[in-house]
Design a protein that fits this description.
The protein is α/β, with parallel strands linked by helices. The chain is built from nine helices and seven strands; from the N terminus they run E-H-H-H-E-H-E-H-E-H-E-E-E-H-H-H. The chain is globular and about 65 Å long. The mean pLDDT is about 95.
Length: about 200
């Protein structure tokens, strides 16, 4: 969903698992869907972990735990590895996450998130561990992600870190523009160039 990014302050959903691949984020059987409906993919985010074989929610999975919620997913190292399916980013956005924090993202998945208005924030392993510890100690812990200043702050400890963000993608996120929107804004410049 296109939305302007500025400062996001939210509680978090912790997923302290490493090497979460795109098939775990959205199983391959959902790639046959003929819809791009965000709710459809969001409803099936982490489907095989979230639901039992009979379709009932697994109370042991974090998305079914009423203590946790919010717009920020805090994930273990190497998030989004595996296939390049964009559906994984659709599912994350469709569930309502605006930010995913990890110490490492698979490159293609990271770019898919950015293209679908989900901000991947890379932090150091020690900062990630601190976040997990804070959230475990108090599920009401909030994190502030300041997109203009490119900082992430654990409000439980006051500790902050800077994160990298491509200037073009930052501009697009802060102005709710996808690549086509951005090109359309450049229409006059493109036409002037073509005339020259």
């Amino acid at each position: 969903m296109k939305q302007k990014f500025d400062i996001i302050e939210s509680t978090c959903v912790p997923l302290p698992l490493e090497n979460v691949d795109t098939d775990q984020i959205i199983p391959a059987r959902f790639l046959k869907a003929t819809t791009r409906d965000e709710q459809f993919f969001g409803d099936n985010l982490f489907r095989d972990w979230r639901y039992r074989p009979d379709g009932t929610p697994d109370p042991d999975f974090v998305l079914n735990d009423p203590r946790y919620g919010g717009e920020i997913l805090v994930a273990g190292r190497n998030f989004g590895s595996g296939s390049s399916r964009e559906h994984a980013a659709w599912a994350i956005a469709g569930y309502g996450f605006k930010v995913v924090i990890s110490s490492f993202f698979a490159d293609i998945h990271k770019n898919n998130e950015l293209n679908n208005f989900v901000l991947p924030v890379v932090v150091t392993p020690s900062f990630l561990e601190e976040l997990f510890a804070s959230i475990e100690a108090d599920p009401a812990t909030k994190v502030r992600v300041d997109v203009p200043n490119q900082t992430v702050t654990n409000l439980a400890t006051g500790r902050s870190q800077s994160f990298e963000l491509n200037a073009y993608k930052k501009y697009c996120l802060m102005n709710a523009l996808d690549d086509i929107d951005y090109l359309l804004l450049q229409k006059e410049k493109i036409e002037a160039y073509e005339k020259r």
